[in-house]
Design brief:
Radius of gyration: 26 Å
Number of strands: 7
Length: about 550
């Protein structure tokens, strides 16, 4: 008797992959459902940087003239396509799209981990590959839950990957490139198509985010040198992989030159060598604060154990080679990825210190790459415990579906919590206060980056607020220069930290009225000399930037 269509091996594999995907989505929603009930919620829905993509798509949807200026990151690939999918799935609802984007971040990571599992778990244990990738996702989500302090720049690592629309793109491209490189290094003459695809992705990502150079290209070159020295890969294959990645990265960097009008600050603007000592001190303080609570100790212990495990795999592999033993293909791949994590960690820490940066989110690739080590450890355990795996298989076949079903059911209330949080993100007491004060009048105002961006995204079309620098010149930082033009600005949103009230009085003089609105005060300059001065400063700087950037 032959198996029917639903019982064919291909169908069973497809159902297994769908079940694994359901587990990934459900697990992510469970974690999101928890985090939107904590101080992390603003990072998901109101973080100034994350709002760049919804603001761009909202601007396009409304047909506004495009004169965008970004940071050193352009969000072109893969961030914009990924968020575009979230935007379409939610019908253009900004808050809902931000929540869906968080789920897509993890789903895409699962896809990349499945690519890596093909290299790290031997063919004879291929049934373990989905479970190994799921284990990596589980570790990432646990790490997110251990980060209790809702401070994106001070101690946040895994949460930056989950909750934001930026930085994750370079990490995904890097890990996908690592998976393709592992496949290419198995052959003396690597296949051209996968390398061309990864070259295109590296070029596009470098164009969009030069952080890929330190997060992936640098560490990969270190690993390739190690593999070459230990004769774990053919020299020809190593040269082809290195040449492809370096050539693609150089192409991406070169393509940034004609797009300079889009770049708010180039990579050189982040080089602050005199602050290296301060950056090192700040990182040490952040580490001590991070590990102070029990939950922080869990994160530090988990990351530390994975880093030590990676080093142990590398040392054990080198010892085997020294004894004259050979490593099979999966073992060589495990050696490579376990060497990649400490290489990446070292490169990122050195760059972090010598650029004078104390912003922890730049270290986000470390916990994400650590999830790959989880897969490598599962692959190594399977290779050494075949009999135990066979005995456990019947138990796994019974327990795994039950656990997956329970997770999916538990995700239902979590999904409701996320949806409610997204709905609540669209309204804000401060914004409501501002709208009541405007009361349908055609007014425009200015304020800080942090206050104006949520108002611009979630407020009505009649609400016009633009971000400015401390001297009230236009602040071109992930926003649209054309939005400043043809407006008469008459009020300032005075944040309390830093003290924008002092800045406003010092530059524009006393306002005609002050209205308290919770997180900020409205300084009304209508009909005063301050209104004239405000518009002179804004429009003069708009014209200067327009000429400089060719808009």
């Amino acid at each position: 008797m032959t198996a029917g269509p639903t019982g064919s091996p291909r169908t069973r594999r497809a159902l297994l992959e769908l079940a694994a995907l359901a587990v990934v989505v459900s697990g992510t929603l469970l974690v999101l459902g928890f985090m939107v009930g904590t101080p992390w919620r603003p990072l998901l829905f109101r973080d100034g940087d994350s709002l760049a993509l919804p603001l761009i798509l909202q601007s396009f949807a409304e047909g506004r003239p495009a004169a965008w200026v970004m940071t050193s990151q352009l969000f072109l690939f893969p961030e914009l396509p990924v968020f575009g999918v979230a935007w379409l799935l939610t019908g253009g609802d900004p808050a809902a799209a931000l929540a869906v984007n968080a789920v897509l971040n993890v789903v895409l990571l699962y896809g990349v981990l499945r690519m890596l599992a093909r290299r790290l778990v031997a063919d004879r244990h291929r049934r373990l590959r989905p479970a190994a990738a799921l284990a990596g996702i589980a570790v990432l989500l646990v790490l997110c839950l251990t980060e209790g302090r809702a401070l994106n720049n001070e101690g946040a690592l895994a949460t930056t990957f989950l909750l934001t629309t930026y930085y994750y793109g370079a990490v995904l491209t890097g890990l996908a490139g690592l998976a393709v490189a592992l496949g290419a290094l198995r052959e003396r003459r690597p296949a051209a198509r996968p390398l061309l695809l990864v070259g295109a992705a590296v070029a596009a990502t470098t164009l969009s985010d030069p952080l890929l150079l330190v997060q992936f290209v640098g560490p990969l070159l270190v690993v390739l040198v190690v593999l070459l020295v230990l004769a774990l890969a053919a020299p020809r294959a190593v040269l082809i992989v290195a040449g492809t990645v370096l050539g693609a990265a150089a192409l991406g960097a070169a393509l940034r030159v004609p797009l300079g009008f889009l770049i708010g600050t180039d990579a050189g603007g982040y080089l602050r060598l005199p602050l290296a000592g301060t950056a090192l001190d700040d990182l040490i303080v952040q580490f001590l604060v991070l590990k102070a609570p029990l939950i922080g100790k869990l994160e530090v212990a988990l990351l530390g154990l994975l880093l030590l495990a990676a080093l142990a795999v590398v040392v054990a592999g080198a010892a085997r080679l020294a004894r004259g033993a050979a490593l099979d293909e999966a073992a060589r791949a495990r050696f490579a990825v376990c060497a990649f994590l400490p290489a990446q960690t070292a490169v990122l820490l050195v760059v972090q210190v010598f650029t004078g940066s104390s912003v922890s989110r730049y270290l986000m690739p470390i916990p994400v790459t650590a999830t790959v080590v989880v897969i490598a450890l599962i692959g190594a355990a399977a290779a050494h415990r075949r009999a135990a795996g066979a005995r456990m298989a019947p138990v796994v076949r019974v327990v795994a579906p039950l656990a997956a079903a329970g997770l999916v059911v538990a995700a239902v209330p979590a999904t409701t919590a996320v949806a409610s949080a997204a709905a609540e993100a669209r309204s804000d007491p401060d914004a409501d206060c501002l709208e009541r004060w405007i009361d349908g009048r055609e007014l425009a105002g200015v304020g800080s980056f942090w206050s104006t961006r949520p108002l611009d995204l979630y407020g009505p079309a009649s609400l016009h607020v633009q971000q400015v620098n401390f001297d009230f010149t236009v602040q071109l930082w992930m926003n649209n220069l054309s939005d400043y033009r043809d407006r008469q600005y008459s009020f300032v949103l005075a944040d309390r930290s830093p003290d924008w009230a002092g800045l406003a009085r010092g530059t524009l003089g006393a306002p005609s009225d002050i209205v308290a609105c919770g997180g900020f005060d409205i300084y009304d300059y209508a009909g005063t000399d301050g209104e004239t001065e405000l518009n002179r400063i804004v429009q003069t700087s708009v014209e200067e930037q327009r000429r400089e950037r060719g808009y």
